[in-house]
Amino acid sequence: MKFFLLLSFIGFCWAQYDPHTLYGRSSIVHLFEWRWADIAKECERYLAPNGFGGVQVSPPNENLVVNNPSRPWWERYQPISYKICSRSGNEDEFKDMVTRCNNVGVRIYVDAVMNHMCGVGAEAGTSSTCGSYFNPGTRDFPAVPYSGWDFNDGKCTTSSGGIESYNDASQVRDCRLTGLLDLALGKDYVRTTLANYLNHLIDIGVAGFRLDASKHMWPGDIKAILDKLNNLNTQWFSEGSRPLIYQEVIDLGGEAVTSSEYYGNGRVTEFKYGAKLGTVIRKWNGEKMAYLKNWGEGWGFMPSDRALVFVDNHDNQRGHGAGGSSILTFWDARLYKMAVGFMLAHPYGLTRVMSSYYWPRYFENGDDVNNWVGPPNDNGVTKEVTINEDSTCGNGWVCEHRWRQIRNMVAFRNIVGFEPFSNWWDNGSNQVAFGRGNKGFIVFNNDDWSLSTTLQTGLPAGTYCDIISGDKVNGYCTGIQVYVSDDGTAQFSISNSAEDPFIAIHVESKI
Ligand code: QV4
Ligand code: CA
């Protein structure tokens, strides 16, 4: 009996940190702005067969329709109600997506906007994705319903009503973030209303939530809401499963609010990760890959089992949020693949891969004046994700998750599982290598000269396909082959001008 009590206790401890992915699947992909119908298809045709653990979807609730500028991506972060009704689709389409993805073992994590409603300056009316009436001026959102009682106007102490200093934890939580009407999460009615929204999604079958703007919500208020949440739907999850929670808290240090305040509620986004990795891979500020030997907690990041990590996200890939110019994105493809490859090979954190759409980037005085542009669309209707013959995406979707190097590194992470970080080597500069026990090994050359050396891989002897330059197809390598000797060593040569100056092998790429 004691043993089972212990197990349930462990289960309880892991509960809100556990993504509930199928065994052997370990990464989340953020299909930013995708339609539910396209995500359902992607789960079946691509994500399940390639071992993706789950999908982060854009906010599914009714949002403000912004016409100036024309339908920006960020309108989805201005809730009008909690009706499942947005440019990604309606409730039936959402339910179909969750069911079809769960049925092939791909989880759905919802981007939940709980901190606020729309901007205080929005014009009253029915310019919303489901036509619901709202009046920001009178704090009237009848489709929820919310009224003046349900906002923090009386609690905020700044004269503007907005956040004026990030050194004051109270105003960061109780005042308006960029003018967004701040909900009174201290009130039980608001907590219950939000919990009802999340429970509706849980009952449909979602596996967890990204909590938007968590820095702007008191940790205790978040906990009060989470304590009202149902267990996950037993049609797909074991009895007593708790939703995965990962809280968006941008903490690069130096502010009153810190990530650690939120550890008790669930995982937290580690923004230092992408900012630092971008600086290292770009070789800025004297950073070099040799310094990655103690990557993770050694770099001052939060504990690995509390961290949600990513190279870029929907904000900082376009200059919103945090990370600045060091952030690597699909626009920097060659370096980006190295950064994503490093993230997926390294044991630290729960990994999230970004999947974007192209937009007409146009810099004026260092700012991308088009960073507001929304998803590919026909007169505001989001375009379908089309798949080309070569398995890339059309219609303006980038589909980084379908790039061979990234797809294969998602599989690498699955295959090495919980194997330890091992066999680190570096040349004191930007040539590094490391293994994951006896299951996988990866080598990078980010120097301006070629790499040619023999390394201890930790792998069994044999011939391995490099899964960066190609695939293993019908027992053959379409790219580079690596020969591991009986003593586990192998010779690696990587030109600094290679298309992708890194090589990765694992026990399932052995021929
Ligand atoms: C404007 C003025 C305000 C004015 C207001 C009046 O700037 O001074 O009071 O009008 O209504 C959009 C516009 C912004 C506008 C605001 C409200 O860009 O100019 O204010 O709407 O009308 C996204 C975008 C924001 C966008 C917001 C809502 O990034 O630009 O604001 O959606 O549409 C901090 C937070 C962190 C946050 C990050 C961006 O700590 O939590 O900033 N990240 C999350 C999401 C992000 C989203 C929000 C939070 C808000 O990842 O995408 O912001 O939900 O670091
Ligand atoms: Ca708040």
UniProtKB/TrEMBL annotation:
Top-level enzyme category: hydrolase
Positions of the Alpha-amylase C-terminal domain: 422-510
Top-level taxon: Eukaryota
Gene3D superfamilies named in the record: Glycosidases (3.20.20.80), Golgi alpha-mannosidase II (2.60.40.1180)
Cross-referenced InterPro entries: A-amylase/branching_C, A-amylase_C, Alpha_amylase, GH, GH13_cat_dom, Glyco_hydro_b
Co-factor(s): Ca(2+); chloride
SUPFAM superfamilies given in the database record: (Trans)glycosidases, Glycosyl hydrolase domain
One Pfam family from the record: Alpha-amylase
Reactions catalysed according to its record: Endohydrolysis of (1->4)-alpha-D-glucosidic linkages in polysaccharides containing three or more (1->4)-alpha-linked D-glucose units
Keywords: Calcium, Carbohydrate metabolism, Chloride, Glycosidase, Hydrolase, Metal-binding, Pyrrolidone carboxylic acid, Signal
Sequence ranges assigned to domain Glycosyl hydrolase family 13 catalytic in this UniProt record: 26-413
Signal peptide: 1-15
Protein known as: Alpha-amylase
Lineage: Eukaryota, Metazoa, Chordata, Craniata, Vertebrata
